[in-house]
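User: I'm writing a short report section on ligand binding and want a predicted complex to refer to. Could you take this sequence and 2-phosphoglycolic acid and write out the structure as tokens? A short remark afterwards would be nice.
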Amino acid sequence: MPGKKLYFGTNLKMYKGIRETVSYLSQLEQLTADMDPETVQLFVIPSYTSLPDAVRSLRHKRLLLGAQNMCWEEKGQFTGEISPLMLKELGLDLVEISPLMLQELGISIVELGHSERRHVFGETNAMINQKVIAGLKSGFTVLLCVGETEEEKNWGISDETLRIQLKTGLKDIPPGLTGRLWIAYEPVWAIGINGQPASVEYARDKHELIRNTLYEIAGTDGREIPLLYGGSVNPSNADALILQPSVDGLFVGRSAWNAADFNALIRSAIHSAAYKQQCT
Ligand code: PGA
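Assistant: Sure. The structure tokens for the complex follow:
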């Protein structure tokens, strides 16, 4: 029996400029050229200003590109925002391609509700819900990030927080579009230089809660939604995390920003998953 499909991606946040992004992508593409996208889905989410060059620099479609945010409206008085139409435009000039391939050649993913959007820039669940609906309707894969703060964890309301973020974030999503929905569980207290990685058991429990909530929201389709863990993923915890049945992938920050290191982390995780598969 084939193992589950695995997802490995990184959000470059506000770190790499155009040149660095293009060089990173070219290294990562070369290093991971032998990985089959049917079984291992790789993705990178660069800054907005790097996106056009990132799109043009890719040699193949094994690696998907995403945007770090998106407005829910197509146009309007939204200074500083980027519309779904603007993201869809990227890649249009590449070659004469069928409209069906456009999304794969350009930007395929929009990341919504990252902790820094919620907690530094004040995005609410209601705003994120509008963005999720717009992202799905515009043909993107939506990567919705959820996670509790340290305060919420200390209050003992992590589960409630996650359920609220999921039930409000996914309210009224168009039926039949959950096939383009991915979820990243990223406890806020585990993210970034001051973060403490969640224990594997903690991550597993929260993934199970998220999986059950997705089932409540989307029925059996909810079982198919890829569920990624993020927050201080590093070479010493990646293998154990990916071995959890409820973890379909890893959303990696700092440990992915050197292409060789990310390639090594991915290979080690794939190897562990394949080994476990052989033994079961
Ligand atoms: P980190 O970032 O791996 O550097 O903690 C994770 C994230 O913000 O997605």
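A remark for your report: The beta strands are 6-11, 40-45, 63-67, 109-112, 141-146, 181-185, 227-230, 249-252. The longest helix spans residues 259-279.
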